[in-house]
Design brief:
- The complex is a heterodimer of chains A (113) and B (112).
- Chain A has 113 residues and is mostly beta strands.
- Chain A has no helices and eleven strands.
- With 112 residues, chain B is mainly beta.
- Chain B has strands at residues 5-7, 10-13, 19-24, 31-37, 43-50, 53-57, 65-68, 75-79, 88-95, 102-103, 107-111.
- In chain B, strands 2, 4, 5, 6, 9, 10 and 11 form a seven-stranded mixed beta sheet that branches. In chain B, strands 1-3-8-7 form a four-stranded antiparallel beta sheet, with no helix packed on it.
- Chain B is globular and about 35 Å long.
- Classes of the chains: A mainly beta (113), B mainly beta (112).
């Protein structure tokens, strides 16, 4: 099942700089897009989401961008902090009658002090 | 801040035994879910529950699995006869709308 792909398994960024995490999806019917953060041995923590009718949503240091024509989603974290170090998952909702989430494989972000 | 709570945090069981994983969703939420993550793999959807019935289930959720909301607060996942390949982290989640789901801390199930 490759409907949602995060092609970078890991990313290393200096503290204070921008972190950009990317996600690609295959199905134009997906209607809601989310980012989750996960620490080891914990559940995913919801960060930010965006509906397919928008192309940008911002919440504090986190901004999500949606490019529907490219079927591409990105999360920007500015400025990055050491506490942001975690695995980040993008997730999509299937659209229509479904509300299940389809997760990407995750990107491990390491923010270096 | 309201949160989804799951018990136990770790369950070890023998193959063929029944297990029940328990969850207390966020109190005003209407949608309830179970997901699981096998070590090294993606988080994958198992089942969603709304208005006291299953609204959707994945291929993984076969006859060995069942869910129940026995009272106004608990939401359980039962695996009738566990297999080695059921070993995974199981996450309960809930949402107010059919949008952002909030996850519990997970139950690590180990089948031996």
């Amino acid at each position: 099942d490759q409907q949602v792909k995060q092609n970078s398994p890991s990313l290393s960024v200096q503290e204070g700089r921008i972190s950009i995490l990317n996600c690609d999806y295959t199905n134009s019917m997906f209607d809601y897009f989310l980012w989750y953060k996960k620490y080891p041995a914990e559940g995913p923590t919801f960060l930010i989401s965006i509906s397919s009718i928008k192309d940008k949503n911002e919440d504090g240091r986190f901004t999500v961008f949606l490019n529907k024509s490219a079927k591409h989603l990105s999360l920007h974290i500015v400025p990055s902090q050491p506490g942001d170090s975690a695995v980040y998952f993008c997730a999509v909702r299937g659209g229509g009658a479904t509300n299940k989430l389809i997760f990407g494989t995750g990107t491990l972000l390491a923010v270096q002090p | 801040e309201p949160e989804v709570t799951q018990t136990p945090s770790h369950q070890v069981t023998q193959m063929g035994q029944e297990v029940i994983l328990r969850c207390v969703p966020i109190s005003n939420h209407l949608y309830f879910y179970w997901y699981r993550q096998i070590l090294g793999q993606k988080v994958e959807f198992l089942v969603s529950f709304y208005n006291n019935e299953i609204s959707e289930k994945s291929e993984i959720f076969d006859d060995q699995f069942s869910v129940e909301r026995p009272d106004g607060s608990n939401f359980t996942l039962k695996i009738r006869s566990t297999k080695l390949e059921d070993s995974a982290m199981y996450f309960c989640a809930s949402s107010l709308r059919a949008a952002e789901a909030f996850f519990g801390q997970g139950t690590r199930l180990t089948v031996v």
